[in-house]
């Protein structure tokens, strides 16, 4: 009887082990879009921890299409004016690879300080499509003008901030959804903002106390939500071309 060479036995054994490992690690072999959906369901800290699972997972979290930074990210140890965590967010964005579709920042302390300006500037370079900034009730901040460099925005949600549009801004040409909650914005500024967002389909306004007589000219508007104490009664609101 002829005995096969040992090298062949080792070769077959290694192939069998690799096949077994491949079959047992089904999650790693899932399509990239499914893996992205799984990782985006995790808090950003837990998604980053997957880098220790294996070489295959080492950089997967850096390709997340959505990044959510809230109190679960920074913990409860931050204080107003503390820029440590906002600096870390900036560093994460520097490391991030691939397209970034959605960005959420809901920790009030992370909205303070110079790093937020650079964070939004990086988002504009990544052609961000959805942005949501929502601090705790009662905490107001001045929103940086770098937001208006995010020209690929399709969804924008802002809460409790001083919203000032630069004179040279020509509009968000792709914006289809806007949510404003307790925004410090004049009636004239609001009208001008809407007039240069021609694709707007969804508009939600909550407690915009400085807004008076609304004249909403939005040809593609499909959803309108108004809530709160306005300067004028809701009956005086004029919504033109609403479908």
TrEMBL record:
Lineage: Eukaryota, Viridiplantae, Streptophyta, Embryophyta, Tracheophyta
Organism for this UniProt entry: Tripterygium wilfordii (Thunder God vine)
The organism's place on the tree of life at top rank: Eukaryota
Domain F-box: 24-76
Protein name: F-box/FBD/LRR-repeat protein
